[in-house]
Write a structure and sequence with these properties.
Helices cover 78% and strands 0% of the residues. It is mainly α.
């Protein structure tokens, strides 16, 4: 493939990435519109109960299906945005003649694509479209960080040029995608649980399942991500480091924070299984684990120098 063709593919990837960000942002706004429609519906119901004139309610008689249609549009746009994001990852890989996860920009782009695929599969199998607004918010946050750290298409750092890059980074990206969905569920759980405890569940929150159901989803997703993180960060990572740098572990900042992430999520799972930690404490611990992942992914790369600074 000529240099001109690779440059063209890189440009196409950039266009697809930008288009995906816009489409996913619109999908998120559709979820916001769904919540607004649900709130207005309750106000109309209250007006009817209070004996308001008929004309007060006629304009909003179709709001329940309108709210549901917003959900349908949001899911459809999420599918389109995910397809564009997958296309951006593929064309980026073709442009660089390698797997598209050699730096922060590519990791965020491809990892978010995997997270959205996981979410959409769960929508298909478990009907969790109620989680869409929060999942999209997390994904847009990660994509925004990726765009802010954009790196032009180019060859890999020599230390990365082994087959272990597919094993190590691939497993890390799948784990990160699951942690993203788990973090979204944990945030939603904290909001819903607090409202239920106060007996003040708003019309918006009433559209979501019970807090216990949300907590169960968060636990299952995080539990699925943990073994992938264990394998990627603590098994295949050290093997790759030995091949690249002649040592298995060097207490590099990236390695330290990967270990911290593992410890926090291990504590989360251990506390749930052995100590019966469910609900609020478990949700906060899961979010702490996700924060350590964000520090490892973004903060360490930008503000702390080390052997992993390229990633």
């Amino acid at each position: 493939m000529s240099t001109a063709q690779m440059d063209q593919l890189a440009q196409i990837s950039n266009y697809l990435m930008g288009s995906a960000f816009v489409i996913l942002s619109i999908a998120f706004m559709c979820h916001v519109a769904e919540w607004i429609a649900a709130r207005r519906r309750t106000k109309v119901a209250a007006a009817v109960a209070a004996g308001a004139p008929q004309e007060v309610t006629t304009d909003h008689a179709d709001e329940p299906p309108v709210a549901d249609r917003f959900v349908g549009v949001a899911v459809s746009l999420s599918v389109l945005g995910t397809i564009l994001l997958v296309g951006a990852s593929i064309t980026r890989g073709l442009a660089t003649q390698r797997a598209p996860f050699g730096n922060m920009y590519e990791f965020g782009m491809t990892g978010t694509a995997i997270a959205l695929v996981v979410y959409l599969v769960m929508v298909w199998r478990a009907k969790i479209q109620w989680l869409g607004g929060v999942v999209l918010a997390v994904c847009l946050f990660i994509l925004g960080m990726s765009i802010s750290s954009y790196t032009p298409a180019g060859p890999l750092v020599p230390a990365l040029n082994t087959f272990w890059k597919y094993i190590h980074v691939g497993s890390i990206m799948i784990a990160a995608a699951l942690f993203m969905v788990g973090a979204a569920a944990s945030v939603l759980y904290l909001v819903k649980e607090r409202a239920e405890a106060r007996g003040q569940v708003s019309p918006v929150l009433d559209r979501f399942p019970s807090a216990a159901r949300i907590d169960q989803v968060a636990f299952r997703v995080n539990a699925a991500g943990f073994p992938m993180w264990t394998f990627g960060a603590l098994i295949s990572g050290p093997i790759w480091a030995h091949l690249a740098w002649g040592r298995y572990w060097g207490w590099d900042p990236k390695e330290v924070w990967a270990l911290i992430t593992w410890v926090v999520y291990a504590g989360y799972l251990h506390a749930r299984v052995t100590a019966g930690w469910k609900g609020r404490r478990a949700a906060w611990l899961a979010l702490a684990g996700f924060v350590t992942f964000i520090i490892s992914y973004y903060v360490i790369n930008l503000f702390v120098s080390g052997q992993h600074s390229y990633a």
